[in-house]
Amino acid sequence: MSEPKDSPEDGDRRAFITKATVGVSASCSVFPFAAGVPAFLDPVSGNGDNADEIPWSKVASLSALPEDGTPTRFGIVRERVTDAWTTLTNVPVGAVYIIKQGEQVKAFNLKCPHLGCTIDHRSDRRDFFCPCHNSSFALDGSVSDDASPSPRGMDGLETKIEDGFVYVRFQQFRPNLAEQVPLT
Amino acid sequence: MKAVIDWLDDRSGFRALIKEALYEKVPGGARWRYVWGSCLTFAFFAQVVTGTLLWMFYSPSAQTAWESVYFLQYHVWGGWFLRGIHHYMAQAMVVLLVLHLMQVVIDGAYKAPRELNFWFGIALMGVTLGLSLTGYLLPWDQKGYWATAVATNLIAEVPLVGVYLQKLVIGGTEYGHHTVTRFFALHAGVLPGALIALVVGHIYLFRRHGIHAKEPRPKRDSYFWPDQVLKDAVACLAVALAVIVLTLYFHGAPLGPPADPANEFPARPEWYFLFLFQLLKYVPAFWGAIIIPAFVVLLMFAQPFIGKSEKGHRFNIGFLWCLLIGAGALTFLAFSEDRANKKHFAAVEEADWLAKRVVEIADKQGIPPSGAVTLLREDHENRARRLFSSNCASCHLYNGHDGRGFPVDSNQSAPDLAGVASREWLEELLDYDHYVSTKYFGGTAFKDGKMATKVLKKFDEEEKALVPKVAALLSDIAGLPYQKPLSEKDREEGFDVFFDELGCIDCHDIEDEDEGSAPDLTGYGSRDWLTAVVGDPSHERFYGKDNDRMPSFARDEKLTDEEIDILVDWLRSKPSTNSEVR
Question: What is this structure's pTM?
Answer without folding.
Answer: 0.90
